[in-house]
Amino acid sequence: MIDSIVSVINEFSKYIIPFLLVGIPFYGLIFKKIKVYESFVEGAKDGFTIAVRIIPFLVAILVAIGMFRASGALDLLLNLLSPFLTVIGFPPENLPLALMRPLSGSGSLGLLTDLINVHGPDSLIAKIGATMFGSTETTFYVLAVYFGSVGIRKTRHALVAGLFADAVGVFSAVYICRFFFG
Amino acid sequence: MLNYIWFGMMLIGVVVGAFTGNIDAVTEAAIDMAKVAVNLAIGLIGIMALWLGVMKIAEESGLIRIIAKGLRPITIRLFPDVPEDHPAIGSIVLNMSANILGLGNAATPLGLKAMEELQELNPNKETATNAMCMFLAINTSSVQLILPATVVALMGAHASQIFITTIIATTMSTIAAVIAVKSLEKMKRFSFSHGGDV
Questions:
Q1: Which of A2, A50, B126, B150 is paired with A144 by a 20 to 30 Å CA distance?
Q2: A92 and A130 in contact (C-beta within 8 Å)?
Q3: How many domains does chain A have?
Q4: Pick among A154, A163, A166, A177 to test the B interface (most B CBs inside 10 A)
């Protein structure tokens, strides 16, 4: 039952982008008589300026994350936390992914790939990892890009709220998967 | 907060790197990541141009206004400070739709467009508004209905099992984000006039 729903959704998702790329100009040209080519070019112009504007913010965030990751501090944190995690039912194998997820998209994808290869896709650890990956975001990257694009430097409560949401996503992934696949 | 975390990550990186003998790797990572950041931004140009172009057509044909109107009951609660007819609402709604549909590379340009429009309403251009923080937190909590293609590929036949768990977990994290933003924005430490948290 779920299998077929998922395959329908995944099949359907392949058509979303092509549909949008054709459907939106279709609506504009046929129903509203918009000069779609001119509008497209006009809008596309902003792509360059926005991308360039976020560079300093991205450099700042990614350099700090890169230094932190390369130092091996994550392993240290892992050793420190794992006895405590076992007590609350959080598999220590999933901790690196949970800690990496807000920092780096490619890094956390690498960790997830590794988890699935080592433990197998039918393992609880792989399922928790995949759920974690799907329910959290690379908070630091999003923060740097979104705020950087408009030059916001004082981010107020956005980071705390984003990290809190990630933590809730991580713990939800653990306990929901334990409940379903325990 | 961001200032301490940013500095803290670099400091921990150097201190731990010195103790574990990874100090060369730390240096290399700093230089590599500076390049990666620029490559990432440059790589965004094309995708940004594509979606911002399509978005412009959607805007001029009135499509965005129609969608934004339909979802107004939700957005008015999340973004009470943004006027009903402001273009930011349209971009926010489209960004969330792209996220829900798992269209990551469409979501970013739409999100940046929304930030630009929210910035128009901002009296202090360097400090994030309540609406911006809410928008960002919702984005970082990853509202998603369709599993990321990479996860589907990795999990193979088992992908369908984590479909439900991911939806539940991501819903929980989004609810947490909304509650966190709404409670934190009232705190003096984070208040807009306070100039924001350092």
A1: B150
A2: no
A3: 2
A4: A154
Identify whether residues A174 and A87 lie together within a single domain. yes
- Note whether B136 contacts A147, CB cutoff 8 Å: yes
Tell me whether residue A50 is in a domain.
no
Predicted confidence (pLDDT) per residue in B28-78, tens digit: 999 999 999 999 889 888 888 998 899 899 989 988 888 888 888 889 999
ipTM score over 0.90, yes or no: no
Residue of B11, B141, B34 whose CA lies nearest to A134? B141
Q: Which two tokens stand for residue A85?
A: 């995690």
CA–CA min distance A94, chain B (Å): 15
Residue B161 · residue A181 · CB < 8 Å = yes
Question: Is residue A145 a part of any domain in this protein?
Answer: yes
Tell me: the pLDDT tens digits for B106-135? Answer: 888 999 999 999 999 999 999 999 999 999
Question: Is any Cβ of chain B less than 8 angstroms from the Cβ of A3?
Answer: yes
Do A31 and A68 sit in the same domain of this protein? no
Q: Which domain holds residue A37?
A: 2-45
